[in-house]
Amino acid sequence: MAHPPIDWHARAREIRVDGRAVIEGERRDALNGETFACISPINGQSLGEIARGRQPDIDAAVASARAAFDDGRWAHKPPAVRKRLLQRFAEKILAAKDELALLETLDMGKPIQYALSVDVPSTARCIQWYAEATDKIYDEIAPTPRSALALITREPVGVVGVVVPWNYPMIMAAWKLGPALAAGNSVVLKPSEKSPLTALRLAELAVEAGIPPGVFNVVPGYGHEAGEALALHMQVDAIGFTGSTRTGRRMLEYAGRSNLKRVFNELGGKSAFVVFDDFSDIDRAAATVAGSMFFNQGESCNAPSRVLVHERVADAFVERVVAQAPKYQPADPLDATTVMGALVDDTQLRTVLGYIDAGQAEGARCAAGGRQARTASGGYYVEPTVFDGVTNQMKIAREEIFGPVMGVIRFRTEDEAIAIANDSSYGLQASVWSENINRAHRVARALRAGTVHVNQYDEDDITVPFGGYKQSGNGRDKSLHAFDKYTELKTTWLRID
Question: Whole-angstrom Cα distance, residue 271 to residue 421?
Fold first, then answer.
């Protein structure tokens, strides 16, 4: 028998936010008692108070993580045991799917249908996948002379600091938690102050699953306070960071100023979506770029915001993309039919509107959208926006907007398309649309990006690495390659007499 639809507004009225940190498996206020308001972008109303973690709170969390690592309560468990506990953690996440989805939607404004169908299951799938990998990664024996035996073993790096952004709070945390915990590390997570709620709940679920206290700690707070304290901490051995390129630079500086901890940055993007005139299904290409660009309100580092289209098909392509825009008009995120929700806060709203103004001032034609929406709601909404007549020198083509704004750039030749696509400080993702197999391979090889899609966009899963070239960062999230970030390689050389 079918269950009645959930009244998400009623659920939202009943929810009680607990904004306290999770240290040593327990909820704790900030040591100085300070808090900050958690504002929902849906309506601009406060959801509750969040502990404002500062250096003393980070010190306490790192001390907890260090003790947990040093006494081996997690790192020394057999891989099969860590596997079972992480699998149980994934099961706990799925069992709490309604609660986690609602917290995610209230906190950062994404539609509830996607929080339920994408964010929660992707988070659980990531933890479960790395759990399965825990007892399937083998060490090595080097091909030495018969007089020696050389062992190459992976060991956990120690205490891992994790700093994640506000756009996919659970998924981004899981991409780092999965391999870090599976490898035997202890973790201190600093979520974005704009969306801390699900990270705090995940830490509780980990303890409920049997992961020992101290192994996974969460300290909410501002980046310049808690985040900086974590990155500078002398007892933190590695930092996994996802966020802006500007902050990623600071993470590298903090490592140099402290203990030269390894830093792995997954940063911004300005991904090129390249459509050649030999691709016949222009409707599918247009629908794909609209769906990828406007998903999550355009607040995705891999959003295809630079759309390069051959001049012979550009007019028809723009017409079809503009026709897609009405499907993505922002609406109430707690309505189960909504496909585009609210930007994360007023600051991001003003930033996106500023880029729209800049695009018009520099001569691009606003073919769709371009305005704030749903102003009576008190929330932060922007229409899906399409610019035509963009050049790659314009601000909207050079800088990451992190909102539902795409720019169409026209090109004439394959070489020109490659040159424009690569003329960016970023190199996260790209896409090539061509029915010429030689061209598809040729262009894909020429594009300087961590992931290149061919005749599709965003089709991937946990089995393949995610990360970028150039100022889009270093290291890779997802896949078995992520273990490289959270393990040390040790050589043990034995002489055989």
Answer: 8
d(CA 240, CA 475) in angstroms, rounded, equals 9
Mean pLDDT score across all residues of the chain = 97
CA dihedral 214, 220, 226, 232 (to 10 degrees): 40
3-state secondary structure of 376: helix
| Joined tokens for residue 80 | 């099969």
Helices (H), 134-268: 169-182, 197-208, 228-232, 245-257
3-state helix, strand, coil in the chain (%, to 5): 40, 20, 40
Gap between the terminal Cα atoms of the chain: 73
70-91: per-residue pLDDT in tens? 999 999 999 999 999 999 999 9
Residue 270 banded pLDDT, cuts 50, 70, 90: very high
Q: Indicate the SS3 state at residue 377.
A: helix
With a cut of 80, say whether residue 342 has pLDDT above it.
Answer: yes
- Parallel, antiparallel, or unpaired for β 46-51 and 35-39? antiparallel
The torsion region of residue 24 among left (phi > 0), alpha (psi -120 to 50) and beta comes to left
pLDDT digits (tens, 9 = 90+) for 454-482: 999 999 999 999 999 999 999 899 999 99
How is 153-164 classified by DSSP, letter by letter? Answer: EEEE-SEEEEE-
Q: Are 92 and 205 in contact (CB under 8 A)?
A: yes
User: Known catalytic residues?
Assistant: 266, 301
Section 160-183 average pLDDT: 98
Three-class SS state of 216:
strand
Say how many C-beta atoms besides its own lie within 10 A of residue 55's C-beta. Answer: 16
Distance CA 203, CA 212 (A): 11
Q: Token pair of 399, please?
A: 């800088």
| Contact indicator for 229, 54 with CB cutoff of 8 Å | yes
Tokens linked to 363: 């001569």
Alpha helices in 228-326 (DSSP H): 228-232, 245-257, 282-294, 314-324
- Cα 1 to Cα 4, 96, 117, 303, 491: the distances in Å are 9, 22, 21, 39, 59
